[in-house]
Every structure is written in C-alpha cells, then in structure tokens.
Amino acid sequence: MQGVPLVAYLSLGLFMFTVGTVGVIMRRNPIVIFMCIELMLNAVNLTFLAFARYMPAKVPSAMLPEAVMSGQVMVVFVMAVAAAEVAVGLGIIMAIFRLRDSVDIDEMNLLRG
Amino acid sequence: MPFSLPFPITPELGVFAAMAGVAALAAVGVVFFQDAVRSALCLVLNFFVLAFIYFTLSAEMLGITQIVVYAGAIMVLFLFVIMLLNLGATSAIKEKLDAKKYVGLGLGVVMAMTIAVQVIPALASSTTVRAPDGFGSPQAIGRSLMTHYVFSFEVASILLMVGIVGSILLAKRRL
Lengths: 113, 175
What we know:
Low-confidence stretches of chain A: none
Number of domains of chain A: 1
CATH class of the largest domain in chain B: Mainly Alpha
Order of helices and strands of chain A: HHH
Radius of gyration of chain A: 18 Å
Structural class of chain B: mainly alpha
CATH class of chain A: Mainly Alpha
Low-confidence stretches of chain B: none
Oligomer: heterodimer
Largest sheet of chain A: none
C-alpha cells in the first residue's frame, strides 16, 4: 500500500506504547498488566516493520536486502520471546493465586525490604 | 493555508486511519475496562487489526503469524487463566482512585510528547518505500533465519524450550 507516510505508522506505535505504559502503572490486576506489556511489544513490532519498509536512514542500496530483513527477523524474535514470557508469567500468577487466594498486585510485598 | 502537511492526503491514508483508529480505541479499552474479560477481548481486536496493518506494510508472513500466535495462542492462554482464576465482573479487583492514576497519566503524556517531538519532525518527509518487492514473504524470512540469523534462531528455540519447562514446573502443584 503506497501513499501512507512513515509517521502515520510511527504515531500509531507511539500511541499504543504510551497506552501500554499508562496501563502498567495504573492497573492493579496483574493479568491486565500483562496485556498492557503485550500491547507495548506489539507497538514496537509495528515500529520495526514500518522502519523495515520505509528505510529512512541512509542505508546504501547494496546493503538494502539485509537491512530490510533485519527488521522482519527482529519481529519474529520478539514474538518468540513474548510467547515464552506469557507462558511463564501466567504460570507465576497461577502459583501466586494458589498461595494467596488473591492476585491484587498491591498486596504482593513479600520482597519489600 | 496557515500550515501544510509534509505528505499528501491519499485514499490509502484514509484506509489506514480507519484501521489505526480501531486499533487505538481497542488499546484504550484494554486499559480502561474494569472487567478483565473485556480487556482481553479488546486486546484480541487490537491484535487482529494490527495484523491487517502488517499486511498493508507488505509483511504478509508476520501478519499471519500475528493472527496465529497473538490473536490465537496467547489470547487463548489469557482468557483461559482469567476463567480459571474466576476474575470476571463479580470478583473484579476494586480499582482505588489514588494518586497513582494521575501520576501514570501524566507520565504517559510526558513520555509520548518527548518521543514525538524528537521523532516525528525528523521523519515527517519520509514517504517513499525503499524495500524491494516480496521482502515480507515466507521465503525471504525463512532464508534469512536459516543463513544470517541461524545462531539467534537456535538460541530462540532454547529460550522457548526453557519457557515450556519453566511453565510446567510453575503450574504443577507438587513435583
């Protein structure tokens, strides 16, 4: 799709990342906090793909194929890390729930000094 | 005209704006719905629309992966845990109205402004696509993963295996 400027994609990515950050700070439900982290990861993925397509930096034309692929491959790795992170994180939440019968993030202060 | 955009307004921009609006509204819904199930459904919508935005970036492979991995697997896991912990509307955690909310909103706005004034003016004139055709195809990504990035690819497989083992260990009541 031609005719969409790079900043349109970057603005959407920035907005989603900001909403994710605000959610992580504001919410007390750890599952929603996890969802907000996923939102931030997706915003970064969108930014990677947008940069991979538009390539605004002064990449010489001979190196363009590899430079283009680096953005795509990075998104593949982000998705792999996100999948592992969600599996382990939700396991931890389940373990905490069995231990405490509550998942309120403000009551998790055992590691406080 | 007092101010003019550095890029032309095209029909494609309208299509993108529609999809971006839905994605942005869904993102806001994730944060501001009290019910965790509604947040999760908003997140599914967001991931789904984002997959179509990936298609417009001609990253077909990653768009399909987005639907399969995120909107499919990861969100099913989220909904499964929400149902399992019974965190529906009746037992939703009461959100207190304290200073944290305003501080969070303020910090978010400040962060967005800081990044926006740095990035957007510098890149506002970039409208030409420099990537070659077919760069988002499965063949291109597979070739890249198996040649240039093969070491990172193997490390990612180890990470996923450790993740599987760790989540099983955490989920088991007693070893």
